[in-house]
Design goal:
- It is a single chain.
- The protein is mainly alpha-helical.
- Helix content is 40%, strand content 9%.
- It has a two-stranded antiparallel ribbon.
- Helix 2 packs across helix 3.
- 19% of the residues are buried.
Amino acid sequence: MSASPDDEIDPDAPLTPYRQLVEIIRARITRGDWAPGRRMSSETQLVQQYGIARSTVRRAIAVLVDEGDVFVVPQRGTFVADEPPADEAP
């Protein structure tokens, strides 16, 4: 499933909220909301924007880290990876 960058979390959808957030964040990165190497919205901002629990946001970020889309710098935030993962490179 691919999401639009402007989608909202649908708690009644078959896809879990954290997976919906993963797809929304990816769409926002693709759209250019956050440039490679730049910090994206904080956990608190994402919690407030999407009306979901912090644990849901953390789980989504963990998936994005595991898949190479973003990286976390302790005490600094979550940043967009400089390059797409190898399996998505052109």
